[in-house]
Amino acid sequence: MLILGTILSIGLAAVVLAEHTPVFDVISQPLVPVIELLGIPDAEIVAPTTIIGITEMFIPALLVAEADAMARFFIAVLSILQLIFFSAIGPMMMDMFSDVPIRFRDLLLLFVLRTIILVPVIAAMTYLFAVFGVL
């Protein structure tokens, strides 16, 4: 109950920004060629959702609902494994763990590093599943 207001407000703001503004589309333009290079289909849809994952865990999956199966799998796995999102985990870590000095920029850096590491790993896993006919 301590972080319920934070979860609702950040989740709502993320949905409004993602659906009604081009903010995430503009920010994610440098990622489109990288995702295309990794062989993930619908790179224009997938790229913004890799960044939206910082706001909430479920919003990226909602935004790729109409995409190719490989793209949906990629985003589903990525959004779960990014782990640090600012609607629940981030505020909880900053508020509840006072003995661990962690700042907003530290959480942001952790998110970026996790995403940089996870994107090629999950892309390879997605490609292997597609080759073996699972996707």
Task: Describe the structure using short key phrases.
single chain, 135 residues, mainly alpha, 8 helices, 70% helix, 0% strand, globular, Nucleoside recognition
Brief rundown of the structure:
It comes from Halalkalicoccus paucihalophilus. With 135 residues, the protein is mainly α.
Helix content: 55-70%
Q: What ranges have pLDDT less than 50 throughout 5 or more consecutive residues? A: none
| Anisotropy-based shape | globular
The secondary-structure element order is: HHHHHHHH
Chain-averaged pLDDT: 86
Q: Could you give the count of β-strands? A: 0
Provide the domain count.
Answer: 1
State the end-to-end distance.
Answer: 38 Å
Largest sheet: none
What proportion of the residues form beta strands (DSSP E)?
A: under 5%
- Using the CA coordinates, give the radius of gyration: 15 Å
Annotation field: number of helices = 8
Secondary structural class: mainly alpha
Provide the fold topology.
Elements: H1 4-20, H2 23-27, H3 31-37, H4 43-52, H5 59-63, H6 69-82, H7 89-96, H8 104-131
Helix pairs in contact: 3-4, 4-6, 6-8
Protein model, in words:
By secondary structure, this protein is an all-alpha fold. The protein has one domain. 70% of the residues lie in helices and 0% in strands. The chain has helices at 4-20, 23-27, 31-37, 43-52, 59-63, 69-82, 89-96, 104-131. This is Nucleoside recognition.
